[in-house]
């Protein structure tokens, strides 16, 4: 019979549901990321929790990625994908700017990202907030895994995006100053850290002002510093008693002196 | 789903969709495109101020409905085609733009969910034109077109209230009233109403906020 | 031909030390020996005409009376609104037009409008030029005259494409064995008119018939027929059509009458000045 055979479809579905050995799942980072524009720049921020299912895999991971010196990116979704896609496009953006002899533009990075992600039809699980400054000004965009993009004055993505958006929607106003934007972005991330199970630990931040170098502020806020242990759990030397000592010669050692003339 | 008949038009998991109300209407001196501004992922509004009216050429624009990723990609490719066309053969007609849209959506119908309205002002013919290109990739030249999930609620309204040779102001009112109703009854439409007006004199953009259109 | 035997003429992809591609020049030679083709750009359209040398008495004749005899037509139709007359190797011309038809259909499929003659000339130019680059192919042994009316603008266009891939827009174009005298006649015809009395397709049909007769003078021993086609805004609605019946009959009658008593004053048109390469 010509064409594709779906004979085993139901059998496979049945086996998948009955088998105890589960198929491997990609790690997905529950995340809160935001971006906020201000009068002459843009700021992006992220939490630093990385998860594998119910386990916190990393308490202080970095979710802010550099595409070019003045274009930065906050990633949610599959950790490996956000890192890989961001490095790939970063590399291509650098080649492109070398070739064109021009400062890289945010729209260029965005277009490269969306075309790459669209090509993979959502199988690359990268949800990104792309921001930066270039000769045309400051920009803030988001890209979804399937390749769609959005523009905005303030954006949030990831499992904590609802908590973050609640903060953004209630506190955002037009023409924010740099300091106000930083405050708003970090407040929004903290809403994710405290209210979303998938997000936690610290706030990373990156400020991009037009005509200036980007400022990457790793662990801008650290509200979850582990409290010092009240006791030391180190064992004193000699805690373990020596019951017996025995030295065994494994081989014969012959000594010989060689004279060099 | 029984494994053989697969619904190709359902959105992939986590995909952003434009559950939408869009329309384009020809009038005496041009054409008006209108759209709501809501994009959703499931029950969450991913963007409440989306711009679904996209430029293809100076005076050829389109309204996008369906998957945001698919329609943006298609619109980008058509824009590229027409830019190349312009450099070789001069300004394209609206029909040519619609034909390129059709080729892409028809030949990739298995992979795309894109319902598009192409509209433009033809400076040679001195009139506006509207082409509707629904899911399968067919092309329909119309006096006016409505599409998206919200359009279901306004077929009757539009049929009763559309008149040929309206002036610009009448058409703006017609589009505003129609989309207002579509947004009112469709859960996946909302936000602001965006309009693009294409005439001899150029491109004009309008925006209407909920407190303005909700109590017409 | 000093180049023969040097090895530089054996392949397409090899230049001679003085920067010539001999294969392309040989292809041009094939055209120079081919039957004459002419085209004329008119006020309201274009007219094409070819000299058809009768290779055998057994071939079906194309006489004005014998309308059913489309068996051996030489002018070809590319699309609704563009025609093509070729000189040189006939099968190459057939293949070229086949490609032109594909190009015109592909254009229409994508853009939902007829291909403008300029765009067709350009695409065919690229195709022919590509045949001067590769080892595995030979250049086209034809020069093709494309004539048509752009349905979008209603403007008439005339282009001639050569084996090198070069193409130019012409007011009057001629190629093939009788091109020298044909060109001289075209020049006379065009310069005799000014902007106030531009030539019409109706007149051009007769004039081109006459020019084919004149171009055939040097080849008198061979029997020939004349084939004419036109794209006229008003007479054929821009459609490329063969001239047949009484209209063709009248044109041929006119040509014969003009050539029998014009033979003496056509002697001044034999200067072979623009033909640089001689063997």
Automatic annotation (TrEMBL), chain A:
GO terms for molecular function: threonine-type endopeptidase activity. It holds the Pfam family Pr_beta_C. GO terms for biological process: proteasomal ubiquitin-independent protein catabolic process; proteasome-mediated ubiquitin-dependent protein catabolic process. Keywords: Cytoplasm, Hydrolase, Nucleus, Protease, Proteasome, Threonine protease. GO terms for cellular component: nucleus; proteasome core complex, beta-subunit complex; proteasome storage granule. The keyword rRNA-binding does not apply. Its EC number is 3.4.25.1. InterPro entries: Ntn_hydrolases_N (IPR029055), Pept_T1A_subB (IPR000243), Proteasome_bsu_C (IPR024689), Proteasome_bsu_CS (IPR016050), Proteasome_sua/b (IPR001353), Proteasome_suB-type (IPR023333). The keyword Cytoplasm applies. It is found in: Nucleus. It catalyses: Cleavage of peptide bonds with very broad specificity. Residues 223-258 form the Proteasome beta subunit C-terminal domain. The active site is at 31 (nucleophile). Gene3D superfamilies: Glutamine Phosphoribosylpyrophosphate, subunit 1, domain 1 (3.60.20.10). Its main location: nucleus. The 26S proteasome consists of a 20S proteasome core and two 19S regulatory subunits. The 20S proteasome core is composed of 28 subunits that are arranged in four stacked rings, resulting in a barrel-shaped structure. The two end rings are each formed by seven alpha subunits, and the two central rings are each formed by seven beta subunits. The catalytic chamber with the active sites is on the inside of the barrel. This is proteasome endopeptidase complex. It comes from Huiozyma naganishii (strain ATCC MYA-139 / BCRC 22969 / CBS 8797 / KCTC 17520 / NBRC 10181 / NCYC 3082 / Yp74L-3). The lineage of its organism: Eukaryota, Fungi, Dikarya, Ascomycota, Saccharomycotina.
Automatic annotation (TrEMBL), chain B:
Keywords: Cytoplasm, Hydrolase, Nucleus, Protease, Proteasome, Threonine protease, Zymogen. One of its GO terms (biological process) is proteasomal ubiquitin-independent protein catabolic process. PROSITE patterns: PROTEASOME_BETA_1, PROTEASOME_BETA_2. The keyword Hydrolase applies. CDD domains: proteasome_beta_type_6. The keyword Nucleus applies. The active site is at residue 20. GO terms for molecular function: threonine-type endopeptidase activity. Its EC number is 3.4.25.1. GO terms for cellular component: nucleus; proteasome core complex, beta-subunit complex; proteasome storage granule. It catalyses: Cleavage of peptide bonds with very broad specificity. It is found in: Nucleus. The 26S proteasome consists of a 20S proteasome core and two 19S regulatory subunits. The 20S proteasome core is composed of 28 subunits that are arranged in four stacked rings, resulting in a barrel-shaped structure. The two end rings are each formed by seven alpha subunits, and the two central rings are each formed by seven beta subunits. The catalytic chamber with the active sites is on the inside of the barrel. This is proteasome endopeptidase complex. It comes from Huiozyma naganishii (strain ATCC MYA-139 / BCRC 22969 / CBS 8797 / KCTC 17520 / NBRC 10181 / NCYC 3082 / Yp74L-3) (Yeast). The gene is KNAG0H02450.
TrEMBL record, chain C:
CDD domains: proteasome_alpha_type_3. Its main location: cytoplasm. This is Proteasome alpha-type subunits domain-containing protein. The proteasome degrades poly-ubiquitinated proteins in the cytoplasm and in the nucleus. It is essential for the regulated turnover of proteins and for the removal of misfolded proteins. The proteasome is a multicatalytic proteinase complex that is characterized by its ability to cleave peptides with Arg, Phe, Tyr, Leu, and Glu adjacent to the leaving group at neutral or slightly basic pH. It has an ATP-dependent proteolytic activity. The keyword Nucleus applies. Residues 8-30 form the Proteasome alpha-type subunits domain. The gene is KNAG0E00230. The lineage of its organism: Eukaryota, Fungi, Dikarya, Ascomycota, Saccharomycotina. GO terms for cellular component: nucleus; proteasome core complex, alpha-subunit complex; proteasome storage granule. The keyword Cytoplasm applies. Keywords: Cytoplasm, Nucleus, Proteasome. Coiled coil: none annotated. Residues 254-279 are annotated as: Disordered. GO terms for biological process: proteasomal ubiquitin-independent protein catabolic process; proteasome-mediated ubiquitin-dependent protein catabolic process. Residues 264-279 have a biased composition (Acidic residues). Belongs to the peptidase T1A family. GO terms for molecular function: mRNA binding.
């Amino acid at each position: 019979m010509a064409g594709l055979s779906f004979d085993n479809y139901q059998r496979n579905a049945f086996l998948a549901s009955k088998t105890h050995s589960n198929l491997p799942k990609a790690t997905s980072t529950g995340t809160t990321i935001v971006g906020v524009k201000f009068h002459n720049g843009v700021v992006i921020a992220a939490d630093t929790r990385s998860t594998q299912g119910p386990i916190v895999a990393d308490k202080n991971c970095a979710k802010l990625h550099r595409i070019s010196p003045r274009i930065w990116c906050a990633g949610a979704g599959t950790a490996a994908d956000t890192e890989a896609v961001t490095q790939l496009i970063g590399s291509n953006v650098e080649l492109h700017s070398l070739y064109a002899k021009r400062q890289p533009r945010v729209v260029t990075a965005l277009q490269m990202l969306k075309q790459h992600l669209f090509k993979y039809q959502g199988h690359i699980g990268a949800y990104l907030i792309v921001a930066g400054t270039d000769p045309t000004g400051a920009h803030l965009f988001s890209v979804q895994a399937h390749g769609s993009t959005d523009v905005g004055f303030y954006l949030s993505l990831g499992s904590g995006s609802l908590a973050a958006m609640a903060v953004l929607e209630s506190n955002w106003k037009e023409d924010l100053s740099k300091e106000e934007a930083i405050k708003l972005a970090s407040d929004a991330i903290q809403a994710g850290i405290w209210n979303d199970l998938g997000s936690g630990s610290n706030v990373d931040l990156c400020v991009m002002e037009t005509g200036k170098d980007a400022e990457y502020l790793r662990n801008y806020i650290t509200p979850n510093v582990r409290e010092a242990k009240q006791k030391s759990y180190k064992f004193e030397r000699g805690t373990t008693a020596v019951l017996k000592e025995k030295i065994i010669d494994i081989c014969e050692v012959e000594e010989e002196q060689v004279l060099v003339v | 789903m029984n494994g053989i008949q697969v619904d190709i038009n359902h959105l992939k998991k986590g995909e952003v969709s434009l559950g939408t109300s869009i329309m384009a209407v020809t009038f005496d001196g041009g054409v008006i495109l209108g759209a709501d501004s809501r994009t959703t992922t499931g029950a969450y509004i991913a963007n409440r101020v989306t711009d679904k009216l996209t430029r293809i050429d100076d005076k050829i624009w389109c309204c996008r409905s369906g998957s945001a990723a698919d329609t943006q990609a298609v619109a980008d490719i058509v824009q590229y085609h027409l830019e190349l066309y312009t450099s070789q053969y001069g300004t394209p007609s609206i029909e040519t733009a619609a034909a390129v849209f059709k080729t892409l959506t028809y030949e990739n119908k298995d992979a795309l969910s894109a319902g598009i309205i192409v509209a433009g002002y033809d400076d040679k013919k001195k009139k506006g034109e509207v082409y509707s290109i629904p899911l399968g990739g067919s092309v329909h030249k119309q006096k006016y077109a409505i599409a998206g999930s919200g359009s279901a609620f306004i077929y009757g309204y539009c049929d009763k209230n559309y008149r040929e040779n309206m002036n610009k102001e009448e058409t703006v009112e017609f589009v505003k009233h129609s989309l207002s109703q579509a947004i009112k009854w469709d859960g996946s439409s909302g936000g602001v109403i965006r309009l693009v007006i294409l005439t001899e004199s150029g491109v004009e953009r309008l925006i209407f906020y909920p407190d303005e259109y909700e109590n017409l | 031909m000093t180049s023969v035997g040097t090895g530089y003429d054996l392949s397409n992809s090899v230049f001679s030390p003085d920067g010539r591609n001999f294969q392309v020049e040989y292809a041009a030679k094939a055209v120079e020996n081919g039957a004459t083709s002419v085209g004329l750009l008119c006020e309201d359209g274009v007219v094409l005409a070819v000299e058809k040398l009768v290779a055998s008495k057994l071939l079906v004749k194309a006489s004005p009376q014998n309308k059913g005899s489309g068996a051996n037509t030489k002018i070809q139709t590319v699309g609704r609104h563009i025609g093509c007359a070729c000189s040189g190797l006939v099968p190459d011309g057939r293949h070229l037009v086949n490609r032109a038809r594909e190009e015109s259909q592909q254009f229409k499929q994508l853009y939902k409008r007829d291909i403008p003659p300029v765009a067709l000339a350009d695409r065919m130019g690229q195709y022919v030029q590509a045949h001067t680059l590769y080892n595995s192919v030979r250049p086209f042994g034809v020069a093709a005259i494309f004539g048509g009316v752009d349905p979008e603008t209603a403007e008439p266009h005339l282009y001639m494409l050569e084996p090198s891939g070069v193409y130019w827009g012409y007011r009057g174009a001629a190629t093939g064995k009788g091109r020298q005298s044909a060109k001289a006649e075209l020049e006379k015809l065009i310069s005799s008119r000014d902007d106030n009395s531009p030539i019409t397709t109706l007149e051009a049909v007769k004039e081109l018939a006459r020019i084919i007769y004149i171009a055939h003078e040097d080849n008198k021993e061979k029997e020939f027929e004349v084939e004419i086609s036109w794209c006229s805004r008003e007479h054929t609605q821009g459609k490329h059509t063969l001239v047949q019946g009484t209209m063709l009959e009248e044109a041929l009658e006119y040509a014969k009458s003009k050539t029998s008593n014009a033979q003496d004053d056509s002697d001044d048109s034999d200067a072979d000045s623009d033909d640089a390469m001689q063997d």
